[in-house]
Automatic annotation (TrEMBL):
This is Heptaprenylglyceryl phosphate synthase. Pfam families: PcrB. Keywords: Lipid biosynthesis, Lipid metabolism, Magnesium, Metal-binding, Phospholipid biosynthesis, Phospholipid metabolism, Transferase. Its cofactor is Mg(2+). Sn-glycerol 1-phosphate binds at K13, Y160, L161, E162, Y163, S164, G165, G190, G210, N211. Homodimer. It catalyses: sn-glycerol 1-phosphate + all-trans-heptaprenyl diphosphate = 3-heptaprenyl-sn-glycero-1-phosphate + diphosphate. The lineage of its organism: Bacteria, Bacillati, Bacillota, Bacilli, Bacillales.
C-alpha cells in the first residue's frame, strides 16, 4: 500500500477548513491528479475531515490524510502521512506529538498505512512555520544536510520541501534532490501556474498543489497537465 506514493507526480492538498463546492471537488477529483491529500496546519477538525473524506470517497483516486492534529485523525484513509519538522528546535513537532499519538492510538494504528515525512519548512510567513517555530533562514547546504538526515540517518521515505504560500527556490529544490539516495522528494508551495508546476516537477519527484485550488480552480487544474503530460 505504502508503495503507491512512488508513482505520484501530482497531488492536490485539500484543506478541510476551507469550503469547496461539489462541482469544484468533482473537477479536482476527475482532473487526472494522482491523489488527494487532506490536511492543513490549522483549523483541521475530526468533523471537517470526515466530511471531506466522505465526499472524496465518491471518486476512485487515492485519498490520504496528512495528520497535523491528533483530534482530527479519521479512520478510513488509504494512507496516513506523518510530518516530522526537521528544521525546528521545538521537538514537539519532531517527536512529542508523535509519542502522544502512539500512546493514544496504540494497537489501533495501521502501521502498514503510515508514511513518515521529513519536513523542511522554508517560508517564514506560512502558518506552519509560525506554528512549529521553523528556522527558515537556512542555506541550501543546510537544507541539503537536513534532507540527508531524513534520507540516510532516519531512512524516511519522504522529504517534503514545504514553501506553503510562496513559490520556492528551485535551486534549493535541485540541491536537495541531488543529496537524496532513497527518499522521495515532495515539493509544495505557491504553485499558481502550469509553468511553475512544470518547473517544480522537473526539480522534484512529486508536486503538491494547495491553495490555488481555492483561489483559481482553472489554473489549479492546468497544473495537472503541466506535470503529468508536459
Ligand atoms: C488510528 C489511526 C487511523 C491512526 C493513524 C495515524 C496515526 C495517529 C499514526 C501514528 C501516531 C503518530 C506518529 C501521530 C503523529 C500525530 C501528529 C499530530 C504529529 C505532528 C505533525 C506536525 C509536525 C504538525 C505540524 C503542522 C504541519 C507540518 C502540518 C502539515 C500540513 C501543512 C504544512 C499544511 C500547510 O499549511 P496550510 O494550512 O495549508 O497553510 P496556509 O494557511 O498557508 O495555506
Ligand atoms: O498551498 P500551497 O502554497 O500550494 O502549498 C502546498 C502545500 O505544500 C501546503 O502544505
Ligand atoms: Mg493551505
Amino acid at each position: 500500500m505504502k508503495d503507491m506514493i512512488k508513482s505520484w507526480r501530482h497531488v492536490f492538498k485539500l484543506d478541510p477548513e476551507k469550503d469547496m463546492s461539489d462541482d469544484a471537488l468533482d473537477a479536482v477529483c476527475m482532473s487526472g491528479t494522482d491523489a488527494i491529500m487532506v490536511g492543513g496546519s490549522t483549523g483541521v477538525t475530526y468533523d471537517n475531515t470526515v466530511d471531506l473524506l466522505s465526499r472524496v470517497r465518491r471518486y476512485e483516486l487515492p485519498c490520504v490524510q496528512e495528520v497535523s492534529d491528533l483530534e482530527a485523525v479519521v479512520p478510513g484513509f488509504d494512507l496516513y502521512l506523518i510530518p516530522m519538522v526537521l528544521n525546528t528546535q521545538d521537538h514537539t513537532w519532531i517527536l512529542e506529538k508523535h509519542r502522544q499519538g502512539i500512546e493514544r492510538y496504540g494497537y489501533m494504528i495501521p502501521w502498514e498505512l503510515v508514511v513518515a515525512e521529513g519536513y523542511i519548512v522554508l517560508n517564514p510567513d506560512a502558518a506552519v512555520a509560525k506554528l512549529t517555530g521553523a528556522q527558515t533562514d537556512i542555506s541550501e547546504e543546510s537544507a541539503a544536510a537536513y534532507a540527508q538526515i531524513a534520507d540516510k540517518l532516519m531512512q524516511l521515505p519522504v522529504v517534503y520541501l514545504e514553501y506553503s504560500g510562496t513559490f520556492g527556490s528551485m535551486d534549493t529544490v535541485r540541491r536537495v534532490r541531488r543529496s537524496l539516495e532513497q527518499a522521495q522528494l515532495f515539493y509544495g508551495g505557491g504553485i499558481t501556474t502550469p509553468e511553475q508546476a512544470a518547473e517544480a516537477a522537473a526539480s522534484s519527484d512529486t508536486v503538491i498543489v494547495g491553495n490555488i485550488v481555492y483561489d483559481n480552480l482553472e489554473q489549479a487544474l492546468a497544473t495537472v497537465t503541466a506535470v503529468k503530460r508536459p
